């Protein structure tokens, strides 16, 4: 459990710094907007391209990939129906709610958990690639369409293919699939610039917490509680059912997949919502609540399923 607590301590420390920066107004009133755009258009594309381009594409071809895919799709679709049909939320809010319910923090918390709890750093790679190559493009396409103001039909359709995150992910996947190895001098700039993505996103998230109290706004309280509950309880349960009863995997793989399903909502959800101006308070509160709430959930999962 030391790995879980260490991962959360590191993330919490950076978010706390961001909160202080926002509270004292160190970077000015437009800092959060600038940092968000920097992360979305420059830092994250570099990080994603380097991560995917240097990954082994063969790690995706396993039952664990299909369990992760099915779990994410079932949870996202179920949450989407709940937000859209039952709660009658707009399309943009529905998309953010579904994304917050199913998009796990595979980088910032997933990697430390994979190393210190699961004993294999590669366990989280299929989830990272799945989210970047499948879930993120779909969600960003919907958000781009739902929030687009004006423009031709052709421009809206082509919008996702002009999205820097999607472009970087697809180009990285191309290099990984073809086995083309880029020389170090070419990859190193992407590595250096991409390394700034996680701390910048966490700092921006921390800055957004200044003056914000989770669940204080009654207008979004239901959305936050529903998305947080789905992320913390429903998704790991769905992953367990698929791993154990549908695919019949062994105890270790069941433990790994359930643990990955119990990871909190990713900061990327907040970054995407902020970029498109869609349900930003919902994304912020779900990320915060699920991050705090995932600690006891991960401990319970480890206590019950660790082989």
Key structural traits:
mainly alpha, 307 residues, Na+/H+ antiporter like fold, single chain
Percent of residues in helices comes to over 70%
Strand content: under 5%
Which CATH class is shown? Mainly Alpha
**What is the CATH topology assignment?**
Na+/H+ antiporter like fold
CA-based shape: globular
Please indicate the count of domains. Answer: 1
Q: What CATH architecture would you give? A: Up-down Bundle
**Largest sheet entry:** none
Count of helical stretches: 14
Number of strand elements? 0
Distance between the termini: 14 Å
Structural class given helices, strands, pairing? mainly alpha
Rg over CA atoms, rounded to whole Å, is 19 Å
Rounded mean pLDDT score: 85
> Which sequence of SSEs, written as H and E, runs from N to C?
HHHHHHHHHHHHHH
3D architecture notes:
It is globular, with a radius of gyration of 19 Å. With 307 residues, the chain is mainly α. The two termini are 14 Å apart. It contains 14 helices and no strands. The chain has a single domain, classed as Na+/H+ antiporter like fold, CATH 1.20.1530. Helix 1 packs antiparallel against helix 5, helix 4 packs antiparallel against helix 6 and helix 11 runs parallel beside helix 14.
